[in-house]
Amino acid sequence: MMRRGGLILFLALVAAVPLFPAFYLTMGSYIGLYSMAALGLVLLTGVAGLTSFGQAAFMGLGAYTTAVLTTKLACSPWLTLLIALALTLAVACLLGAITLRMGGHYLPLATISWGISLYFLFGTIPALGGSSGITDIKPLNLFGLELRGEGFYYYLIWAVCLASLWVTGNLLDSREGRAIRALKGGVSMPEAFGAGGLRLKNIVFVYSALLACLAGWLYAHMQRFVNPSPFGLNQGIEFLFMITIGGSFSVWGAIIGATVITLLKTVLQGILPTLISHTGNYEIIVFGVIIVAVLQCMRGGIWELIERFLPPKADKPIGQASELPARVQPPRGAPLLRVEEVRKEFGGLVAVKNVSFQVAAGEIVGLIGPNGAGKSTMFNLISGELPRTSGAVLLAGEAISGLKPAQIARRGLSRTFQHVKLMPGMSVLENVMLGAYLRTDDGVFAAGLRLNRASDARVAAEAAHQLRRVGLADSIYAQAGNLSLGQQRIVEIARALCADPLLLLLDEPAAGLRFQEKQELAKLLNELRDQGLSVLIVEHDMEFLMNLVDRIVVMEFGQKLAEGLPQEIRANPEVLEAYLGGI
Amino acid sequence: MDLSIILILAQDGLTNTAIYVLLAVALILVFGVTRIIYIPQGEFVSYGVLTLASLQQGVVPGTVWLLLLMAAVAALMESVRLFSEGALRDLPAALARILLLPAAIALLIHFCAPLRLPLGWQVLLTMLIVVPLGPLVYRVAFRPLADAPVLVLLIAAVAVHFGLVGLGLLFFGAEGVRTPAFSSAQFSLGALTVSGQSLWVYATSLVAIGGLAWFFGRTMYGKALRAVAFNRNGARLVGISPSMAGTLAFALAATIGCLSGVLIGPITTVYYDSGFLIGLKGFVGAIVGGLASFPLAALGALLVGLLESFSSFWLSEYKDVIVFTMVIPVLLWRSLSSVHYEEEQ
Question: Domain residues of chain A, as ranges?
Fold first, then answer.
């Protein structure tokens, strides 16, 4: 109720600004425009863990495109909007394609350079008016009617801004949005469930650029005048400051930050020069100090402070019975996973030497070995994290060696991580929902416009079902980060189950667990086998595996040392030698 | 365009290169040791020039006040930390460690500034003022964020850049300065005239690079820094303190920045905000080296320097556009040639 009340209050405030003197109306329009550019940055920086200094440059691209085309070629502003968006799309795709494959710091460096050159271009190309800019841009028109008046543009800007806010919020609460939120922890987890990390990063970068371009287009028609100075690198930096102060983890942080920075800048520009008795942009000192302080003391920004006083968000609705498409599981005992003569060399080191083994449907196989035996390398060769040197891995008769993790996930392999990879700030339910990424196909557009509700509710129902299956029915709405390590491991299993796998691959599931937690985990895996699930466990805890698995494969020094029933392995002198160094 | 113009442009380009190489080295060093993309590096260049120019006029440079201010902030932060840890006993010693050196430097400058010492001494005093600012910036802004993701450090670096540029304006005003040349000699080599100043730049740059090579190759501290850049956790495990390494890296970066400033002061007019673009051009060089390889970065700096001087001849208005647009093809090349890798935060 309080959240809804706050929202209504905020909307009423936005609607009431034109009642105040004209100065506030102008400020309000600017805040709306800056909020849109900052919103893109929230998605990029706060959510996906990338960053860009190019928002002001994309705004400039939008503003200059429409300024040139409407004044020089008398184009309709509506046509120039499409052209500006297309141009931005092209530039953003190019920059993204070049930089996003590499480390996270190349995007900011590329956007700094690109932003600076665009700024200088605006200022030097004579056709763009040089530093004095372009004047007499046409106002917007509708059916031959010219739309003028500051009040009109204020409401238009805020309508577009609030719409972007709604779309962004919807996007984050969707199949693609959950995968985007997972990007911050590295791409290996979303890719293990079939979400292409590079594709998602490109989507986020392009989306944020388009928002900035839209703001720039509005800016040009509101001002009816453009010059280079509002699109320089300093403005791009200020957008980053806005989301830092406002809170980069929430869409509301963009609006709060845009408001705070815009008002603060106006106030400081009034006070500081008289205080110092020289003109100059001294406010940047204050901004610099505030941002460093915010980063050191409250990294969540102002929104995090506000959030503390708000009641928790409403729980995500869970639909009726799950109706997601399911795979046909192979009959018990049929060959499922075949590892054939797989070899992996790192330079001169042979980490895995021509190892072969099989997993049949409906059985639990343990892959064990002392430290450094090559188990984890073997695991990564099966899951596709590492490319093999030679040999083949087949899942249900189909070769999966040589495929990327996302493609392997599509063929029915689902995994957990040795170092738990959950999104700690999200609910357990949402974490598990990510597992079903490949079972629905709602795209970005459907999500933004909220057309995905029905299928999202089905996914939520499936996730809840899997959570009940693993015995975590009580923790569905808990924050994943608040669970114990043992419970987090089980959430990872539920997430893997949510993908409806043919084979479940567990990476040292017992590592770091207490005795009781290990027993509960073993009990759960036993139940899952009884329900027909096939599991391959990589583990070095013999104790944990002995009473659980059907068969054991032992590796040492990259080679298969033994294979057999647990009691055979227990009596095998070579295994004892490897583990205990001889008795 | 004849040979003599080509030679003059090449000479200009090499002079710029000498500076960009130094800055690129500093940026790679700071990034390797602390993971900070050190945007404010350029501010130390302008601080160097502006400080030297003040000393030339016999006035106490504004950076002295900045030094005292930063030391006071560091002392305040340390007091708060010790207070919250209940270790007030250690306070006097901690404050002395932070405040004594800056105070002594300020006193020294106060007496020496009106004396108008010879240029060499003034350069020394300039270094004495500007270099301690590096470790202080690290201490105040970055050390409390040591465990933060690269992204947060980058935002902090940009904020520090804003702060230092604004303080530059506050302490030095908006007027540009030029410092006197180290040497007004001119040498004729056939068609080419070489100025004594550019020889100074080449020589100092080479000596500085040689010094750094010796430092990293031969001394314990240099090896410790390399160890931290190579593997942060591993270095910590063998007893290299990350905060010591950060302080040292920032001190070196400030030294390099200030030295670059002193070198270019006689060549170009420097304003309070000129350092930023100079620093970014060093970055372009560093990016060519993937923020990791010193020789490649030097090659990148050479490319930037020559591109800049030749484009200033043909298309002087588009000089900066050309230099910064070059980053895009460079990144494309790196993206195609480098191994695809992922980083986690």
Answer: 20-231, 333-412+502-583, 424-500
Give which of A315, A239, A283 is closest to A42, Cα–Cα.
Answer: A239
Judge whether B269 and B46 are in contact, CB under 8 Å: no
Residues of B in contact with A299 (CB under 8 A): 148, 152
The tally of domains found in chain B comes to: 1
pLDDT digits (tens, 9 = 90+) for A403-451: 999 999 999 999 999 899 999 989 999 999 999 999 988 888 888 888 8
Q: CA A371, CA B254: separation in Å to the nearest integer?
A: 45
Those residues whose C-beta lies under 8 Å from the C-beta of residue A495, and which sit 6 or more positions away, are A193, A416, A422, A431, A432, A434, A435, A466
What is the residue-wise DSSP string for B104-156? HHHHHHHHHGGG---HHHHHHHHHHHHTTHHHHHIIIIIGGGTTS-HHHHHHH
Helices first, then strands: H and E counts in chain A: 23, 14
**Separation CA B54–CA B67 (nearest Å):** 15
- Which of A52, A53, A55, A120 best probes binding to B when mutated, by most B CB atoms within 10 angstroms? A120
Q: For chain B, say whether A545 makes contact (Cβ under 8 Å).
A: no
Query: Do the chains contact at B160 and A292, CB–CB below 8 Å?
Result: yes
Interface of A with B in 78-107 (CB under 8 A): 94-95, 98-99, 101-106
Tell me if ipTM is over 0.85.
yes
Mean pLDDT over all residues of chain B? 88
Joined together, the tokens standing for residue B266 give: 């006689």
Fold held by A333-412+502-583: Rossmann fold (3.40.50)
- Give the pLDDT confidence of A510-559 residue by residue, as tens digits: 888 888 889 889 999 999 999 889 999 998 888 888 889 999 999 988 88
Closest alpha carbon to A114 in B324, B158, B285: B324
Give residue A204's Cα distance to chain centre.
9
Q: For chain A, how long is the longest CA-to-CA vector?
A: 95
Q: How many CB pairs under 8 A join A and B?
A: 149
Which chain B residues are closer than 8 Å to A106 by Cβ? 287, 331, 334-335
Number of Cβ within 10 Å of residue B28's Cβ equals: 26
Q: What is the number of alpha carbons within 13 Å of residue A229 lying toward its C-beta?
A: 4
Q: Which residue among B159, B321, B340 places its CB closest to the CB of A292? A: B159
Residue B97, domain member (yes or no): yes
Cα–Cα dist B271/B42, whole Å: 12
**B187 phi, psi to nearest 5 deg:** -115, 140
pLDDT reading at A18 higher than 70:
yes
- Summarize the confidence of residues A116-136 as an average pLDDT: 88
| Residue B152 with chain A: CB contacts under 8 Å | 295, 299
Task: Let me know: does A421 contact A496? Beta carbons within 8 Å.
Answer: no
Cα–Cα distance for residue pair A216/A109, rounded to 1 Å: 22
Q: Which whole number is the average pLDDT over A192-209?
A: 93
A99 contacts B335? CB cut-off 8 A: yes
Chain B residues close to A188, C-beta within 8 Å: 342, 344
Look up the domain containing B220 and give its range.
Answer: 21-177+195-274
